[in-house]
Amino acid sequence: MTRVFSGMQPSGEPHLGNLLGAWVNWVAMQREAESIYCVVDLHAMTSPTEHDPDTLRHRTVDLATSMLAVGVDPEQSILFVQSHVHEHAECTWLFNCITGFGELRKQPQFKEKSEGHESVSAGLFDYPVLQTADILLYHADEVPVGEDQRHHIELARDIGQRFNHRFGEVFTLPKAVHPPAGARVMDLQDPASKMSKSQSSEKGIVRVLDDPKRIEKKVKSAVTDSATDIRFDRDEKPGVSNLLEIFSAATGRGIEELAREYDGRGYGAFKSAVAEAVVELLRPIQQRHHELADDPGEVARLLEVGADKARALAAPTLARAKDAMGLLPAGEA
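Above: the chain sequence. Below: its structure as tokens.
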């Protein structure tokens, strides 16, 4: 069976882009593949600005709770917190020792996130190597990512291939896959930019736990254009196209079908229908989230079970890598 790995940072409240761009696919994939999903809290510590410890802990629990609420099933997949499996950090050091400084300096994410900051951490610079360890520790065959993350998978393949060439075949080389459904949910106020926890304005982002009235207000105030026709055209009608894509992902209906149905009825009726679809999509997720949040002990138990399963896969891989590199096992001489 194909093995899939994916992770998400606890860097803010989950939003509609996380749900439609990633989680709906995660839920679908766990029925067809051996799926491993991770709350990557170590990555969240690499922000150019100092993180607040209490906020990080809260967001880690909340993100895991949201993943469970949308349908990530611990019986079908492995769900865990990155820092609960120490092999991730240890494997990163092994990869650091075969990764070139120039390779990391070229990574676009470091340039983007460090721009405008006088001081950035070595952790931010090293972020792609930790991501490589996340993936390669589990012999993942596929990593679902957006097009803007393809370079990270290419680096992971390069590092894994270099290790295998120098020290013997230890790691599986993954490939990036791009699930089609809702792959790019855009900012409601700036439809040229992706919906983002850190970049979107309050009016531009729909959070998974927003109440229905707030969702309705945000969708109805979404930027469109001065025309009246409803059709999918990312270049000429980015706002309308974004709403059509959200509408389609929320209802399971085709974009062209929805465009034909609402063309000529005005943007007001169209936006109201999109808002209603989003509210109904999120209603059972919000209910399940509240139930899980009322039982934090159960969430902690599920994450512990997931970490045990993850460690059972990661530990043998790390042991093989350390042996291949010549590290002396404890208790031997």
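Residues 44 and 123 are 10 Å apart (CA to CA).
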